[in-house]
Design brief:
- By secondary structure, the chain is mainly alpha-helical.
- The protein has helices at residues 2-10, 14-20, 26-42, 44-56.
- α1 (2-10) packs across α3 and α2 crosses α3.
Length: 65
């Protein structure tokens, strides 16, 4: 979820996100983000948790990566 939120809310590239998550390739970050997006579509509780995190962090801008 963290990688998904970072991509969704900051616009930071996969290349820059990778090291923050201990990943070496951009494809690994893309896979994390893709998996999280699928979870978001399938699970209301997952979406609720993401919304809670966004509210806590006061994230209110969205960048489409």
């Amino acid at each position: 979820m963290a990688a998904w939120l970072c991509r969704r809310r900051t616009g930071v590239t996969s290349r820059k996100l990778g090291p923050a998550f201990g990943l070496t390739g951009t494809e690994s970050v893309s896979n994390l983000v893709r998996h999280a997006q699928q979870q978001s579509k399938r699970s209301a509780s997952w979406r609720m948790k993401a919304s809670e995190i966004e509210a806590t962090l006061q994230l209110n801008t969205e960048h489409k990566a």
